[in-house]
Amino acid sequence: DGTAVLDIHSSGSFSKPVVKASLGVEELSIRGIAVGSMHGAAELRDSQLKITAGLSDDSAHMSVRWLVRKPYTWTAEAKIRTDGINPLLFFGNKDVSDRVKVIADGAVTAHGAGLNQASVSGEAVFERIGLVMGDYRIDNEAPAVFSIDNGRLTIKAVNFRGPGTRLGVTGTAKAFADVDIAVTGTADLSLLKLLFPETEFAACTAQMKLTVKDDWSNPDVAGELRIQNGEIKIQDIPQKFTALNGKILFTQGRIVTDSLAGEMGGGTLAVSGWAQLTGVTLREFSVKTAVDN
Description:
This protein has 2 helices and 20 strands. The chain has helices spanning 94-97, 192-195, and strands at 4-12, 17-30, 33-45, 48-55, 60-67, 73-85, 101-113, 121-133, 136-140, 144-149, 152-162, 165-174, 178-188, 199-203, 205-215, 220-234, 241-251, 254-264, 267-278, 281-292. The protein has a 20-stranded antiparallel β-sheet that branches. β4 (48-55) and β5 (60-67) form a beta hairpin. The longest helix is centred in the N-terminal third of the chain and has 4 residues, at 94-97. It starts with a strand and ends with a strand.
């Protein structure tokens, strides 16, 4: 969406037309998300359509060559270089994406035939890709390589490292359709701030094994998080939870715990409860805490 200025010029003959066009959009938005101003140009000559487009801040640029007669083959290249995009907005999770930024520097090449998504193949290589949540950040250890085959993106092995965190990501995804991704490794409990903004402080390295599957806009998150000697401070609760040990399960759209033990205010406590998720967004929760002084 956005207000556009389009200029078109044509010449040549009816059998061999030459058409040139330029386009400028001041405030472009995609799926309701503002991405800034955009400029583009196109030329049709000898049954070849050439298109170039980019954002005014040079964070993204794309070029396409398309044969406008059978078999309608095309090739495309795109370059992305940004220090702060909100990818989760494209999943319809604005409340989470406001707290998340992605750093990316890489290129994508693809080819296909017509509008047949199953014909799309290619590769994406990112020299730099990272995730930032407040003062918490993880970055890729080596260039991240993704393959595109029959319209599906495959993540063979992408590894991230940050404070108290080392994660490996594998799986596949089809844009705006479905995902099947696995995340394993160790993670700092600061990640809890992503789901629970009421978390003021969290410290501990936890063992993580998660899968994200099914619908793109509302994936099912399953797996477990094993905590050893953790510390958490919740907003409006003066005492800090310490010496936390136990297991947190992710299942059927819920985060469930029935065996989390720790200390608070000089006494021991046991925590059980659940939190309901829609995708990666917290919707409701119920927690029971027993404290023994």
